[in-house]
Amino acid sequence: VQLVESGGGTVQAGGSLRLSCVASGFSFDDYIIGWFRQAPGKEREGVSCRSTNGTLRYGDSVKGRFTISTDNARNTVYLQMNSLKPEDTAVYYCGADIIDICGLGYFGQYFGSWGQGTQVTVSS
Fold it and tell me: Which residues are CB-neighbours of 88 under 8 A, at least 6 positions away?
């Protein structure tokens, strides 16, 4: 399993960013795919998760603002982030797992594989 994120950067509050993650070594039909983030001094926080049956889940703090999508032909998962807030500042990781952890309470802590991360900074 390999995951390579891109698309992070610095944006003003209220702005938008789209993160991309190119996956290899597995199929979205067999693995769940999603995003989690980690800010300095804080625990991993689940952002979004897509089960193998297509069910989507979002963390409470990003519901209505972030959208996860996949392009199976490109083996790529995206995270569209709108209405960004300073508290969204973190390193964002793309994660995958063969076990469906999307329904777990703190799903952000259970991804078995993840990429190198991409920094997102939201200025006020």
Answer: 37, 62, 81, 120, 122
Instruction: Detail the DSSP E strand segments found in 1-124.
Output: 2-6, 9-12, 17-24, 32-38, 45-50, 56-58, 66-71, 76-81, 90-97, 113-114, 118-123
Edge-to-edge strand order for the sheet containing 66-71?
A: 2-6, 17-24, 76-81, 66-71
Contact 74, 13 (CB under 8 A): no
As a whole number of angstroms, the distance between CA 93 and CA 87 comes to 16
Mean pLDDT by 10 residues, the chain (124 residues): 98 98 95 97 96 95 98 96 98 97 92 97 97
Question: Are residues 115 and 76 in contact, defined by beta-carbon separation less than 8 angstroms?
Answer: no
According to the model, what pLDDT value does residue 105 have? 87
